[in-house]
Amino acid sequence: MNIKEETTKMKLAAPKLAASSKEQRDQALAMIAENLEQNADRIFAANAEDMEAAAQAQIAAAVQKRLKFDEHKLQDVLGGIKQLISLPDPLHRQLLHRQLDEELTLYRISCPIGVIGVIFEARPDALVQISTLCIKSGNCAVLKGGKETARTNRVLFTLIHQSVVEAGLPADCMLQAEQHNEIDELLSCHENVDLLIPRGSNQFVQYIMNHTKIPVMGHADGICHIFVDRDYDCDKALPVITDAKTQYTAACNAVETILVDRGIAAEFLPKLKEELESHQVKIRGTREVGELIPCEVIAEDDFANEYLDLILAVKLVDGAEEAVRHINHYGSHHTDSIITENAATAAYFMEMVDSAGVYQNCSTRFADGFRYGFGAEVGISTGKIHARGPVGLEGLVTYKYKMFGSGQIVGDYASGKKQFHFKDI
Considering its fold, how many domains does the chain have in total? Predict the structure, then answer.
């Protein structure tokens, strides 16, 4: 397959998809859900082959968990599609209506980004989430999944593309790239592809960012923190930390570091250790932490590690100000949480921490497009342009300006013959 030729076709199909109605795109989503449900056995059979191959290749257990696509994952993606259908149309929304002069009117209207390339490792459910979000937002999508789930991805894409075509949307609005060399081909298609969204390891995302002229939206790390303030509630702290570490350890929004106020360390750390040990979580801490509870002692630089494992780093700090400094220095600007009953301390923390998500008294695992009500996510962005945090529909649209006149020319305004009167309507 020639990626450049295929993305050229997509570029031509993009305006047609952008002009489609909400009803037509929602119909495509409904047909996708129906097709996936009716062909569940076919999907599971393909995934079983992928899982067997992963086991034989001795792929890490944490990664294998991401590869699995079972009934639970199917129900999750079906729930995401249902939620997407219920959401309002992100396209054709009037964002500005301004009269510049008599019979000279300006509008700002939401529209798709165009052609989006999404390159992701493992997780076949990501293919469904990405595809359906792109369809709802009117974007053409180039999808490149990992080789570990090639069989599952192939079946999923076939069912999704079939549904899109049957709903009357352009056949060239979706493309699946399967070969590894096609990644580099895609990275060179800056004339046709408007945005790249990589999902995967730090090394993988950095490679994408460093080898293309196409704008890239994504994140390279998921070093998330929870700060336990001296005004904490232990009955909230322990289950929140446990959930943030163990609910899905391999996720980028799993907590990696716990910061504890020194004033409560002696009473809290033994309780934390007991709780974490019951979930097979190993604690690594500073020498100061090691003096209060048995743990592996680590150096300051180790707080820059993303474990994605049942390992948790612990450090003591003197209050919220030091916690914020640590997070802004070592964190990945993903998601960070504070456990406190003090509203003023929480407000300070949430204002000063420079992350896409800042929480009080809840797990970092809530950083997810589906849990935000976005109908899933195409990825997480830790940057500040163009979208931030879980990227749902709003992060997949931009806008264009439309102006309607009656023969006006700029020369009349430059000479003073006419004047703007700027009136928002």
Answer: 2
